Protein 1
Amino acid sequence: MGKRVLIVEDEQAIVEILKFNLRKEGYETLEALDGRTGLELARTQDPDLVLLDVMLPEMNGFDVCGALRRGGSEVPIIMLTAREGEEDKVFGLETGADDYITKPFSMRELLARVKANIRRRTIDMGAQRSVISVGDLAVNIDSYGVTKRGAPVELTQKEYDLLRFLILSPGKVFSREELMENVWNYDYFGDMRTVDVTVRRLREKIEDD
Ligand code: CA
């Protein structure tokens, strides 16, 4: 089942373009044209992410965000801010938003952020099981400790991030680009050889041969 994105935005044209592009990427969408309806849908429909405009009728985006967090919701929230105003961004993050995008935004960037924020949330939820065992390896997500047949394995931060990412997506095969995007961050335009080298070092440390 596709991940569900709730769009809370009062400009119908922006709603339509977001809906079109998100659906094309395989997401399901829900829409609200005012803050109060947005809050209601976020509470009752359990979306995987909320795209939240700031200037909305009925209730503004900051208030919607604050109300969701006070109610204990941990849904990823990306604020859509109309102005370049630094206070808007800071205020949005203070009310509990995870990220913000300034209008007018590039669709490519918006989609990348949606994906990254949903991914981060999925990994955090997986991390609630604090020790994960795969074969001879045991990875403690809380303490960052890795052991192989009981003996500690020393990993660098990136090797650890990579291992954690891979074991939380069991059975999946990732391209270099996907690893770069998810382990090194979506906005890191680095050398793909970084991925190869880290994968190789990690394998040397955790595999028998
Ligand atoms: Ca608006």
Protein 2
Amino acid sequence: MTATEIKTAVITGGASGIGMAITKKFIDNGIRCILIGRDQKRLKEACCNLGELAHCIKCDISVLSKLPDLVEDISQRFGKIDILVNNAGIHLKKPFSEVTDEEYQKIILTNQVAVFSLSREVAKKMVAEKKGSIINISSMASQYGIPQVIAYTASKSAVEGMTRAMAVELSPLGIRVNCIAPGFIKTEMSSRALLNDPERGRKVHSRTPLGRLGVAEEVADAVFFLASEASSYITGVVLPVDGGNSIGF
Ligand code: NDP
């Protein structure tokens, strides 16, 4: 494979949890991955372990003013961007009436507004190539009401709406936009959310027909499918990867 044939993917939060599984899946399939995150040490460790197809850039995506330069820098260094995975996200579990405006805005900024801004900048590059695939990561929180996650739920619901709005504008230009709604997947984030809440843990299991939490690799497989030519006629969908949690009773 020549350097120009190698696809390039930008994966926010690509150095941990679900993002790391996505990165590994892409690298196993010969895709160059640019990992974005705030934790320089974690990024460096990930890149060392993943080999020469992995590159990391420290960037806080909630600082929106940095995103145009970030995308320009990636384009200059690696050429075209074929795939964007908007995976980075933060969570806040707190009773509705105790959530401050600042806390609410921080979640919305990271999980929603940054997805818009980064996608816009990357889409400008993809439009020039007349192709690309953008994959957003939402959550079961957008499918039904989960207590104590008001800001997270709002942000992820917006991500699903944005997926459809982006798909209708960008697909005629050659860019497919899809979304994955993971169910309850074993990662640091979900462990924190389920920790000290055995009742919620029991509920998750009881309404998941496959009877277990998912693993990050199962989300990565679905992201890889949506990034690949195997899904060339799919755009604007929200695909649950949830062991049936969203249809469980
Ligand atoms: P993790 O907490 O393991 O990973 C989140 C990643 O996002 C980290 O790598 C973090 O990197 C990055 N990140 C957070 N904020 C920023 C920021 N401001 N700028 C750049 N990077 C940032 O979570 P998961 O792997 O569990 O979650 C990944 C995605 O999947 C999230 O969008 C989450 O909402 C979603 N999801 C997860 C579920 C689960 O059960 N685990 C269920 C449903 C959805 P760093 O700290 O270096 O900035």
